[in-house]
Amino acid sequence: MELLTYKSSNIEEIKQLFTTVFSDSEGHTEGALIGNLTYSVMTGTDAQDLYGFVATENEQIIGSIFFTRLTFQNGVNAFLLSPVAIHTSYQGKGIGQKLINFGINHLKKNGVRIVFTYGDPDFYSKVGFNLITEKIAKAPLKLTQPEGWLGQSLISDEIEPIAGNSCCVEAFNKPEYW
Ligand SMILES: CC(C)(COP(=O)(O)OP(=O)(O)OC[C@H]1O[C@@H](n2cnc3c(N)ncnc32)[C@H](O)[C@@H]1OP(=O)(O)O)[C@@H](O)C(=O)NCCC(=O)NCCS
Predict the structure, then answer these.
(1) N or C: which terminal CB in the chain sees fewer CB atoms within 10 Å?
(2) Backbone angles phi and psi of 145, in degrees to 5
(3) Quick check: CB of 28 below 6 Å from ligand 1?
(4) Average pLDDT in the 9-31 region?
(5) Measured in angstroms, how far is the CA atom of residue 86 from the centroid of ligand 1?
(6) DSSP readout, 63-95?
(7) What is the CATH number of domain 2-177?
(8) Where in the chain are the domains?
(9) What are the tens digits of pLDDT across the range 46-72?
(10) Which residue from 170, 157, 156, 21 is spatially nearest to 87, judged by alpha carbons?
(11) Is 84 near ligand 1, meaning CB less than 6 Å away?
């Protein structure tokens, strides 16, 4: 298994991976939604606001993850982890955690100070995320599940509270993703 930065030549294969993985886990409607979301993340986000990585096996993409910029008024260098998927037949083997840690280390080396995500606290706590409230940092849109709002500081033990609203990239600026 290899972990790499994604290339623009991978876009169709990555869209297909997300569509298939989320169709398998949550049905075709969700699969199509997340496949299209990932496509618009890759094609509609400025390069300085995006990091993407893949896990490969025999040159096939078996996992992928994206981080997009979350902008706060104080200018802190912060990103949102979403989405991430591991091919259904490769799940539960530790690849997801390796891919997430690989991505986070890359962001840390590039000066990113905070990473947020929105998901299952039981899983994301394995890779350094803690539950946070919107008193610490506001989510960009209204959260339907505030108990899934998670964050980690890459520079200290905890996130210092950040004043003001946050703003996500265009691909995530839709209520159905929150
Ligand atoms: C969630 C996901 C990225 C985790 O990657 P993975 O390689 O399967 O996970 P790892 O093997 O590194 O980690 C194992 C842990 O993840 C959790 N986990 C494993 N498979 C899971 C699944 N299908 N769904 C949710 N959590 C899962 C378990 O808590 C497990 O912990 P344990 O080994 O102590 O029981 C992957 O299972 C996946 O793509 N799932 C479907 C899509 C999804 O839910 N993506 C995340 C939301 S954007």
Answers:
(1) N
(2) -130, 80
(3) no
(4) 98
(5) 8
(6) EEEEEEEEEETT---EEEEEEEEE-GGGTTSSH
(7) 3.40.630.30
(8) 2-177
(9) 999 999 999 999 999 999 999 999 999
(10) 21
(11) yes
